[in-house]
Amino acid sequence: MSEQPLSRSLADNAQWLRQLWEPSEDLYLKNVRIGGVIGLLCGFEGLVDMEKQWLMDGQAMQRLPRRFADGTSLLNYLVDETAIPLDKALAVSRQQVVRYLTAGACVLLLEGSCRALVIPAQGQQSRSLSEPSGEGNLRGSREGFVEGLRINVSLLRRLVRSPQLRCEMQTVGTATRTEAALLYCKGRCPPQLVESVRRALGSTGLDMVFEPG
After folding, report:
1. Cα three-residue angle 140-143-146, rounded to 5 degrees
2. What tens digit of pLDDT does each residue of 55-72 get?
């Protein structure tokens, strides 16, 4: 199947992204303005170290010495005339954007450009992933969940690099207000099952929730 090129319209690209991953709440989209050109910074929470990305790349972009007519001229300048660490490859199709995002990179879409900048900003914090002590695994991955919910969601994002993977956040426990994530593959998981789990999470009626049990 041929790949679909990106549009020169930032609004069209942004609408496509939101529709593609709706309602994934771990998708980070931020409107930015660089050199007089509006853009959209995209990445997945947990996969992308947003603080590192902004300190290393975002602030440098904000200090560009001149303004640009459109996203194409800005992109060429960033790639050819600055020392900002960018990926050698540019995303020129929707499928490439999906692959870079699910691999943990940051993608910058620009108004007036049918190419997107790829910013290597992979990173995660918190306790490192390791094999669960009570669940020895003879084959396959040795990674296991940790305490941080966002890190666990990012682990699943790394393993299932599909735009069909959805993430819905809910709060359970009237006193603890514990954050919970419902993840499923749209088109593979029966909608009635997703709705059933969604209702169950929303009607627990518990004061305190500290763990799945």
Report:
1. 155
2. 556 677 778 888 999 999
